[in-house]
Design goal:
Number of helices: 13
Distance between the termini: 67 Å
Shape: elongated
CATH topology of the largest domain: Rossmann fold
Helix content: 25-40%
Strand content: 15-25%
Strand order of the largest sheet: 10-23-24-25-21-22-11
Low-confidence stretches: 1-5
CATH architecture of the largest domain: 3-Layer(aba) Sandwich
Number of domains: 3
CATH class of the largest domain: Alpha Beta
Mean pLDDT: 95
Largest sheet: 7 strands, mixed
CATH superfamily of the largest domain: HUPs
Length: 566
RNA sequence: UGCCGGGUCGUCUAACGGUAGGACAGCGGCCUUUGGAGCCGUAUGCGGAGGUUCGAAUCCUCCCCCGGCAGCCA
């Protein structure tokens, strides 16, 4: 590896890990560049918690002119699949990071790890054990009592070497033997109570095929993999803190490069679950439509929901990195995507739950073309033409037969502005036999056309959105809400976490209307539907009738007023 | 009750012995042809008790509370 000079960038450290690294750089602790790595196990899809780690590790490489490797910790073939490898690579790239071809696998190091295991055996520091799993548990002791030594602990190196080689050769059935480090069965750190290094698994591996029937345990593989890759700072979550002394012990026995492990607190998000086991269960049980269901906290789910990589990276920046347990309010995530989309998303009008409006004094058959602003936050986004006519659709919510105070929308006798068009006054409405309002009648004031200059003569408190009936496009809109009803589904006592699932987390509106310009939308396109929220075109949206996913609502002051009044 | 780690506004996060600050959430207001956006203002916090010091969130002692660890998972 070539010599490089690490330099502390102008930007100051923003968390305790940056501080450690800057100290190391200033003290010239390493002659090489700063090397980090993101080490997922390919046994599921990445989630927002991984995004925190990805941003941290790749962010450090960017900040300090270092490298961040992508390494798959694929030491357990019974749980790992190529599908997951592919999804992980896609998600890391989508977030905007690149591992520069340094795509590594723990399985690349199987031979080296095996050789090191033989070395440990020769040193008399590892032995082949034949305890059953049940016996193993008994012998391990408890958190407060020491364990006891395995009867197989004092075999000779020659015998251990022979047995271990025969394990590798496939002479023994699954689970019949293990290779264990010989350390200290009385250690207060249970990780030192002769940890298992290898187990027998006659299981095909997604990369090595049937080349191996013994597989290294994570603890035996992880630290040495970091060492092989010359990782300077091995950043992981808090639960591995107790393992660090063990990794150090292995590294010392083998006299190899010693990466510095630094632990941080994993991300928890309110109103969701984050463990891969639980996410897999939601997928397998059909509670969601898949790993990329827009309600999932997975990166692919957020992507399908309409989140941008920038918003997620900004989120990772805002939540910070520390060692105390934390639960981030999902409102912060939502704020990040609103902030991003407010600046970038084109505005369009969509009526989710249509109610017909007839403007009785507007000439039948007449069509006017109006100019609408694409994004008031971005003058370069320009304008578009929209058509106005006698019959239109408005939102059912924007008319009330008996309006409460502070309701600025339509009711009989009241006036509102139709966005980009005229001020209209409600003159009446029709109901069907079930009492449902079917049509609202209005009269418009021709003097109030938007942008006409005369518009300013009259002021109304409310402006509502609409879609002209003559050229409205049909659309399906999917309204997503939080997947769980409680802040910490996994933490509620005496209640199965699945019982806290929000049954209204998805509401499908199959009969919405949108501006005809939206007919040409492509999957992933993002819009603000005025007054409603941000939406994106679903990845499986058909071309004749688009499907839009609601990413997040707009901040809704009216909803707040309503809530307060109730 | 063994070992390791952690406690700063409601939620996150700063402070590195020298005025406890920022963000989100909340509340109040301004503005507005999106009840959006934006702008202004505002309340709320160092787990507790001692000690060291001119001065402590920061250093020391004791206590309290919370998290992790007993897979042939990672």
């Amino acid at each position: 590896m070539e010599e490089t000079t690490n330099a502390v960038n102008e930007s100051k450290a923003t968390n305790f890990i940056h501080e450690i690294i800057e100290d190391d750089i200033n003290n010239k602790k390493y002659s090489t560049r700063i090397n980090t790595r993101f080490p997922p196990e390919p046994n599921g899809y990445l989630h927002i918690g991984h995004a925190k780690s990805i941003c941290l590790n790749f962010g450090i490489a960017e900040k300090y002119d270092g490298w961040c490797n992508l390494r798959f910790d694929d030491t357990n073939p019974s749980k790992e699949e190529v599908e997951y490898v592919e999804s992980i690579k896609e998600d890391v790239h989508w977030l905007g990071f690149d591992w520069g071809g340094r795509e590594y696998y723990a399985s690349d190091y199987f031979q080296q790890l095996y050789d090191w295991a033989e070395e440990l055996i020769k040193q008399g520091k590892a032995y082949v054990c034949e305890l059953t799993p049940e016996q193993m548990r008994e012998y391990r002791g408890t958190l407060t009592e020491p364990g006891k030594e395995s009867p197989y602990r004092n075999r000779t190196s020659e015998e251990n070497l022979d047995l271990f080689r025969r394990m590798k050769a496939g002479e023994f059935p699954d689970g019949s033997k293990t290779l264990r480090a010989k350390i200290d069965m009385a250690s207060p750190n249970v990780n030192f109570r002769d940890p298992i290094l290898y187990r027998i698994m006659h299981q095909e591996h997604h990369r090595t095929g049937d080349a191996w029937c013994i597989y290294p345990m994570y603890d035996w593989a992880h630290g040495q993999s970091d060492s092989i890759e010359n990782i300077t700072h091995s950043i992981c979550t808090l639960e591995f803190e107790n393992h660090r002394p063990l990794y150090d012990w292995f590294i010392n026995q083998l006299s190899i490069h010693h990466p510095q492990q630094i632990e941080f607190a994993r991300l928890n998000l309110s109103y969701t679950v984050m463990s891969k086991r639980k996410l897999l269960q939601l997928v397998n049980d059909g509670d969601v439509a898949g790993w990329d269901d827009p309600r999932m906290p997975t990166i692919s789910g957020l992507r399908r929901r309409g989140y941008t990589p920038e918003s997620i990276r900004n989120f990772a920046e805002k939540i910070g990195v520390a060692r105390r347990d934390n639960v981030i309010d999902v409102a912060l995530l939502e704020n990040c995507i609103r902030e991003d989309l407010n600046k970038r998303a084109l505005r369009r009008m969509a009526v989710l739950q249509p109610l017909k409006v007839v403007i009785d004094n507007y000439p039948e058959g007449q069509i006017e073309t109006l100019e609408a602003i694409n994004n008031p936050e971005d003058s370069t986004a320009g304008t578009r033409q929209i058509e106005f006519s006698r019959e239109l659709f408005i939102e059912q919510d924007d008319f009330m037969e008996i309006p409460p105070a502070q309701y600025y929308r339509l009711s009989v006798g009241k006036e509102v502005r139709l966005r980009y068009a005229y001020i209209v006054k409600c003159t009446g409405f029709e109901k069907d036999e079930n009492g449902n309002i079917t049509v609202v009648h209005c009269e418009y004031d021709p003097e109030t056309k938007s942008g006409s200059g005369t518009a300013s003569k009259k002021k109304v408190k409310g402006t509502i959105h609409w879609v002209a009936a003559h050229n409205a496009a049909h659309a399906e809109v999917r309204l997503y809400d939080r997947l769980f009803n409680v802040e910490d589904p996994a933490g509620v006592k005496d209640v199965d976490w699945k019982a806290t699932i929000n049954n209204n987390s998805l509401v499908v509106l199959p009969n919405s209307y949108v501006e005809p310009s939206l007919l040409t939308t492509q999957p992933g396109d993002k819009f603000q539907f005025e007054r409603l929220g941000y939406f994106c075109t679903d990845k499986e949206s058909p071309t004749d009738k688009p499907v839009f996913n609601r990413t997040v609502t707009l901040r809704d002051t009216w909803a707040k007023i309503e809530k307060k009044n109730n």
